[in-house]
Amino acid sequence: MAESTIITRVFPSLQDVDAQAWNALLARQPHATPFMRHEYLAALESSGSAVPETGWAARPVTLWRDGRLVATCPLYVKGHSYGEYVFDWAWANAYEQHGLPYYPKAVVAVPFTPVPGARLLAEDAATRQALLHAARDWCAEQGLSSLHLLFAAGEDMAASGGEGFMPRHTVQFHWTNVAPTLGTGVSSLPPEGALAALGQPGGGLAGYADWDAFLAALSQDKRKKIRQERRKVQEAGVSFRWARGAQITAADWDFFYRCYERTYLEHGNPPYLTRDFFAHMARHMPQHWLLFVAERGGHPIASSLIALSGDPGCEQVAYGRYWGALERVDCLHFEACYYQPIAWCIAHGVQRFEGGAQGEHKMARALMPVQADSAHWLAHPAFADAVDRFLEREGEGVARYLDHLQGRSPFRHGPT
């Protein structure tokens, strides 16, 4: 019997792809995150956050076999490099200096979201590679300069190697609910289920019993620093409350957005995400959000929003996402963005807390360096060769940087 033919279709909107079929493919991926759910990506579009007017033109690539969706990915055609967190401004400048257009280009990514995870949703490895092949061919047909696969999972990186993409590595900082031991190496995304045993009987790894147990695993100077920073917030009269899912009220969301917007405006930029985007999250993905609100004198003054994985059978992960404050309090950022979420993760048995892109200051708060991966294809052969040489040198530097960071572990050596 002849093998069924795979048909490629590229749509002008996420709304044109069936949400149930998309999410069913996502559920099959070992490194699924809530940011790749159809509801999340569609909300970015329908809220006006990631749309052609803001430089993000969605062109989801899909593969079909016998009328059934077998693979898909969120591809965007872009006229700039904002909101990606894998920086290629130097490449764009080099193109411009040689009189060549770098934009428009294409990315397979989650807009404004530097969270590693599955990007190529497919039934198996062969279909995953076929999906990336189809996306690359479509970009070539459209005359786009390049295609970039950002913050990809290991399965996606394997597919990219087979299609001639160039790997690139960056560094993030993640907290795990188990103290590392002497000699622990730096890794990228953990294998499927590698942390799922945390806190489980017979799993061989036990999560921290409480906050004091976590502090006890740190070196003396780090314990002292954390206690001092938390004391400053407490002595300023600040307390915290948290709400999850449906417990987050409309007033809470409104206050959070005031804080979020203030943070961007203080840096001279409008926020990437609209208030309507978060309204979509409250309606369609409430179980994936955790809000911390700082209060002083009975009034809210700051907030931090954490995303949560939560699908049955998946590793439990918290993702640091957004924060903002209406009043200045020394060390409030550390308390809202690191200490409160970590304490919550310990109390609720969450296995990992991802602190987001960059920031080696996070190591002092026990977030350890991990490698995050991307892959890149450039249509122009000469520029592709030049970028390949650059990435080889850059990769050597990233490896040295990871080794350097690992030598500065905040954890005390020996039994914990």
TrEMBL record:
Tagged with keyword Transferase: yes
Classification via Pfam families: FemAB_like
Keyword field: Transferase
SUPFAM superfamilies: Acyl-CoA N-acyltransferases (Nat) (SSF55729)
InterPro entries listed in its UniProt record: Acyl_CoA_acyltransferase (IPR016181), FemAB-like (IPR007434)
Gene Ontology molecular-function annotations: transferase activity
Keyword Transferase: yes
Protein name as it appears in the record: N-acetyltransferase
Gene source species: Paenacidovorax monticola
